[in-house]
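Recall the central idea of this unit: under ordinary conditions, the amino acid sequence of a chain determines the structure it adopts. In this exercise we apply that idea directly, starting from the sequence alone.
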Amino acid sequence: MRETSPLDRSMDALAASTRRQLLATLHDSAPPVGIAVAEVVEESAQSNELHHVHIPKLERYGYVEVTHGEELLYRGPRFDEVADVMRVVEANASKLPGGWP
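Accordingly, the structure predicted from this sequence is:
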């Protein structure tokens, strides 16, 4: 199986608003600081989908590291890969339908 490109991984990670919220919050925080998932994602979004789809995908891509039973997220070893794409998107946020993140 062929490995996906960094751009494909980044675009896939940013395709869901829940993942964009998590990544944007990590991007805005100081690198060694973890974020509490419950403080970022709305209560209604804290469902099985969050813990069985969104967080595992970000972890699989290397964008986040998870601790304490998926309650805290930290920047993963490939976080800079998605951060580069996020900077381009943020710079053009006013041109996007629906806004950012």
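Helices lie at 6-13, 17-28, 37-40, 48-60, 79-91.
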